[in-house]
Amino acid sequence: MNARLPNPVRAAFEPSNEDDGRVIVNIGPSHPATHGTVQIITELDGEKVLRADVHCGYLHRGFEKECEAHTWHNLIPYVDRLNYCSALINDFAYCGAVEQLMGIQITPRTRVLRTLLSEYSRIADHITCIAAGLMELGAMTAFLYLMTLRDYIYEHLADLTGARVTYSYGRIGGLARDLPAGWLQRLDHILSVEFETYVGRIHGLMDRNRIFIDRMRRVGTLTQAQAVSYGCTGPMLRSTGLARDLRRDAPYLAYADLDFDVPTGILGDNYDRYVVRMREMDESVHMIRQCVDLLPAGPINVDDPRCSFPDKGLVYGEIESLINHFKLVIDGPRVPAGETYLAHEGANGELGFYIVSTGEGRPWRVHCRAPSFVHMGATHLMLEGGQLADVVPTFGSVNMIGGECDR
Amino acid sequence: MNAPRATIPIAPAAGSAGGAVAKVPTFDVFTTRKDEIVGWARKFSIFPYPFVTACCGMEFMSVSSTIYDTDRFGAALPRFTPRQSDLMMVVGTITHKQAPVLRRIYEQMCEPKWVMAFGVCATSGGFYDNYAVLQGIDLIIPVDVYIPGCPPRPETVIDGIMQLQDKIARQHHVILKGEF
Amino acid sequence: MDTGWIDRLAPRLEAALAAVPGTAVQRAADMPVVELPAAHIFDAARTLRDDFGFVMLVDVTAVDWLGREPGRPRFDVVWHLRSLDAAERVRLKTRVDEAAPEVPSLVPLFGSAAFMERECHEMFGIRFAGNADLRPILLYEGFAGHPLRKDYDIHHEQPLVPYRDGVAPPRSRGTP
Q1: 3-state class (DSSP) for residue B126
Q2: How many other CB atoms sit within 10 Å of the CB of residue C2?
Q3: Interface predicted TM-score of the whole assembly (ipTM), two decimals
Q4: Which pLDDT tens digit goes with each residue over A1-33?
Q5: Going by CATH, does the domain composed of C4-129 fall within 3.40.50.2000?
Q6: Annotation: CATH topology of A64-406
Q7: Is C164 within 8 Å of B131 when comparing Cβ atoms?
Q8: Could you report the per-residue pLDDT of B99-130, keeping only the tens digit for each?
Q9: Alpha helices (H) in A138-195, listed in sequence order
Q10: Interface probe with C: pick from A98, A230, A246, most Cβ of C within 10 Å
C-alpha cells in the first residue's frame, strides 16, 4: 500500500468500531462492473449491503469549461463524447438547442434523418448496455453475439460519417453529409437479417432463462415515487410502470409523424429494465423503417449564412462566401444573446442542454443535463438492502455512461 | 522502481541477410536463446488488465470480440486483478482524480509488466487540455506502446498489440536475479 | 412544437406567486421563467411541486456573469422543473452575488437535488443551505477553487500524483 498516493474521495461513513461484523468494501473505480469510473463504497453485513455511497467523477473531463473556450461548431466533437454509446443523439440534441436559440428550422430531410439516426444510435446504446450487463452475469455468448451485431452497425455508421464510435456528424443547421449510395439498402439488411438473428438469439437465451430471471427479478427495485423524486427518466422511469417518454409527450424532430409504443415495466427491477430496453430496440427498428418511408428528398443543410458553410466552389470563387466561411471558422456562428433549454429522449432518459449565449460565436455557458448523473443519485436506493452480488447486475441495468455522467 | 529494463541491441535474426553475426561459442548463445524462447512465450500469452474508462472502451469491446478478436494473439483473456495480469491497457481518458488509482494499480502489478496507452487521451490527454485531465499517462507510469486514435479503429489496436509483441520478443527477460 | 401551454401557464404562475416580493414571470420561447429572490426559492419550488404538478427537478446549475453586467450580482442559479402529467416545464432563476453565494437547498423536496447541488457547489462555489453533504462529486478532495468560474484558468491543473522523474511536465498555455 503506497502511503503517498492521496485518496481522491471521502466516504460518507466510517467503519464502525463495534464488533458487529460490519465491514466496508470498496468497489471500483477500476472495476469491470462499474465501467471503470464509478466507486461504490458499501457497508456490508455479511453479504447484505446496508449502505452504499456512490462516487462518480472519475471521468470528469471538463466538458463545460471546454465549451466556453471553443466556438459553437468546434464543440460538436466534445458533445459526441458525452454518451459515447449513442453519440448521434448527443450531436442532435446539442445542435437542436443551438438551432432553437438561433431560431433556425432544419430542413425536412434532416428532420427525418436525425430521427432515423437517433433511433439507430439508441439501438447501439441498448445493445451495449444489455451486452455488458449479460457479460457481467457470466453470459459471454450473449455478449459476443451482441458485439458482432454492434460492429455491423458501427461499420455502417462509419460508411456514413467516417467514424465508428464518435461521429461529429451533426451540424448546426443540418448534417455533415448526406447518405451515400446503398446506405439504406444495407440498413434494411442489418435490421431485417442481422438484428433479427442476433437479438433473436438473445431473446432465446435470456428471456425465460431460469438463472437470469432469478438473478434479475425483484433485484435492484426502484419504486415509481422514488424514481420521480430522484429525477429518473428513460428506461429507469419506464421500468417502474410510468410511461413517460419525451418522444411522445413533447415530440421533437419527426417523432410526431411516427407510430410507436412506449414499453413499460412493472416492478422497476433489473428484469424490467432489460425487457424495456429489448422492447425499445424493437420499437426503434419499427421507427427507423417508418423514417425510411417518410424520408423526403432535398437539402440537408438549411440555407442560412449564420451557421451553414457555403459551398466550397463559392468559397474559392467569390469574396462574400470566403468571408462568410472565414467568419464561421474563426469567430464561430453568431448565436443571438439569450438562453434556452432543449431536451431530447436519449437512450438513458432526458438528455438536456441548457445554453447561454451573449451573442458571440462562442458560448457563454453550456450545461449538459446528463441522465446518467442523475441516476447515480438514485443508485444507492437500488443497492441498499440487496446482496453484494446484486450490485453488479443492478449497476449494469442503470447504464451509467461515464462520459455523460461526469462530463 | 522505474529503472530502465536492460535490453539487448536489436540484432538481425541469425541467418538473415542483414547482418554478419559470427556464431561465437560463448555463454551468450544460451542467454539469447533463453530470451527468444521466453519472449516468444510471453508475447503470445498476454494477460491484459483493461483499465477502461471512456469511449475507447467501446473499441476495446469490439477488438476483443468475434470480428477482430485479440484471442488470435493470445491477448484476449482479461484478468481484472493486477496481481495476475501483465499488460495494463489504459483505455480512455485518465483524469487527475483517477490518477492515484492508475498509479496504485500499476504498482500492484508484478514484473514483467507492460503498459499500453490506448487512445489519444491516454497518450497525451487528447483534446481535453484542461484542469481535469492528466495530459498523458506517461507522466505517471512508463508506457511501452502508444495507440493513437479517438477512438482507434480495432485494426490500429491490433497493430499496436503486434508492435508490443515485437517489443516483448526483443527484450531481455530476467528470469533469475544476477548474471545467469 | 406547441407552445400554447406557455401562454396558459404563465398567468397561473404569476397569480400563485404574486405574494412573493420581487417575483417576475417571463415567457421565454421554450418555457416560463420565474425569477425571484433566493430566500423564496424553497417555498416557490414547493408550490410548483404541490400545486402545479412540477414533480421532477430536472436540473440545478449556475451561470457566472463575471465582467458582463457590472452592478448586478455575479451568479445566476437556475433550476429546471418538469411536470410529468402535462408536458410542461418551468425555469426558476435567482441571482446571488460573490460575497454571499447562498441559496436554499431543495433536497427536502426532491431527491435528485442532492447530487446536482453538490456539482453546482464544487463548480461555482454556490452554497446550498440545508444540504448537509456538499462533498466534491466530480472533482476530488483537495481541489482548490471552483473551475467553472470565469476567473479559473482552464489550464490550471492540480495533479494528485507527482510526475515521474525526468519527465517534462506538459507545456501549458496558462499558469501551472
Answers
A1: coil
A2: 9
A3: 0.93
A4: 445 788 888 888 887 778 788 899 999 899 988
A5: no
A6: Cytochrome-c3 Hydrogenase; chain B (1.10.645)
A7: no
A8: 999 999 999 999 889 999 999 999 999 999 99
A9: 140-161, 183-189
A10: A230
